[in-house]
Each structure stands twice: as structure tokens, then as C-alpha cells.
Amino acid sequence: MYEGSAALMNIVIGTILLIVLKKFRLGPLSRPLVLMTTIMHYSMSFGYFLRDGILYSPDPDAQLGDWAKVLQRFDGSNVLRVGLLMVGSLGILFVFFIAYRQAFHFISDNNDKKERNRVASAIYLFPYLFNAVAFTLVELNSPIAKDDIQAFLVISPIINVFGMIGFFWGYMFTAHMVKPRKQNVYYFSPCAEKKIVLWIVSAAVLVFDAIVLCPGIYF
Questions:
Q1: Strand, coil or helix: what is 3?
Q2: pTM (2 decimals)?
């Protein structure tokens, strides 16, 4: 369990953030931030279960994922793999449900398709696309990319494209695929006030990630 703890820790953090979303009256900046961080942690956690259950290999040199070591200790148990897939599948559906429900706190007219599309694009689609492109490029500076470009081309899309898939389907469910909620739970427009300092901080964090975190810190 310790070796597969990344997924478990993401679930713990996601659950804490979900409680904050449900119980606290957050502002127009903090609420979208907490919502996106919640979806990120949940998507990554349940994505681990799905990925590792599907891609497990008995060959130690071909193993991929945090739960591979756990599965290896149980000789690749099919029961455990099916259990991981079930937890992952139900968890991902739960992520889609959260994304859909929480989006309507930012939609004043549930029946206005243009507004649903605008809000869902702002809090889900644009962050998803930016993450997929920007962090794939940033991670080209990582040890994995430098040592094994083929492994990088597998791992990076799994994390940045499929690992954040809750954002994409949150957008699709809210803007296009699911009937809007009957109850109006509108809070306020997300990030209505544009602050240049947020762009500066975001750029600084991205540069720090590219230059310091992705190459790694060694002692």
C-alpha cells in the first residue's frame, strides 16, 4: 500500500478540498482554484488505479505505474487488477459528476447554452489544453525525456492528457452532453476581476517548474 501511496494521497487531498468546496463560502478567485485542484487530484488518483490495473506486466523491466510493485507482490492477481479497475472507473465517474455539478455555481442561467459553454471553457477546457501542451513541453527538460525519449512520449501524455481527463469531460458534460441542472445554484462569475499579478505569479511558477523541478533537485 505504501508503494501505491501516490494514488491514495491524491484521494485524501481531493477529499479535503471537496469538503472545503461544499462547506465554505469561497470567493470568485479561490472557488475556481479549489475546484480545479480538487479535480486534478481526484483525476490523478483514480487514473492511477485505471492505468496500473490495465498496463501491469509481470516483466519487472516492463512494469509501469505505482501499483505495479503492489501487483507484483500478489503475482499480478487478476482479482486485485479487477478491483483496481473498478475503483478507478467508479472514481473517474465521480470526478465527472463533481465537475458537472460544481460548474453551475458559476452559471447564472442554466438554460443558456452559450453561457454554459463559456463558463465550462474557462474553468475546464482552457486549463486542460494549456496543461496538456505547456507541461508536455516543460517536461522535455526532465531526466526521463533526456534519458529515454520513448518512455517520455508514453508517460507524459498519460499524465498530462489522460491524467487530467476529468477537465475535458467536465467541459463536455456541462456544455454539451448532459441536461442542465433544474435548480439554480449560481454563486458568481469566476475570476471576473482580471489581476495582472496572477499572470505574473503563474508565469514564475511555470518557469520554476521548468528550470528547477523538472530537471530534479539532487543532494
A1: coil
A2: 0.82
Query: Do 53 and 87 touch, CB atoms closer than 8 A?
Result: no
DSSP count for the chain of H helices, then E strands:
11, 0
What does 142-209 look like in DSSP terms, one character per residue?
SHHHHH-HHHHHHHHHIIIIITTHHHHHHHHIIIIISPPPSS------TT-S--HHHHHHHHHHHHHI
**In this structure, what is the dihedral angle of CA atoms 38, 192, 138, 14, given to the nearest 10 degrees?**
0
> CA Rg, the chain, in Å?
19
37: pLDDT confidence band, cut at 50, 70 and 90? very high
Q: Is the dihedral of CA 156, 154, 219, 41 positive or negative?
A: positive
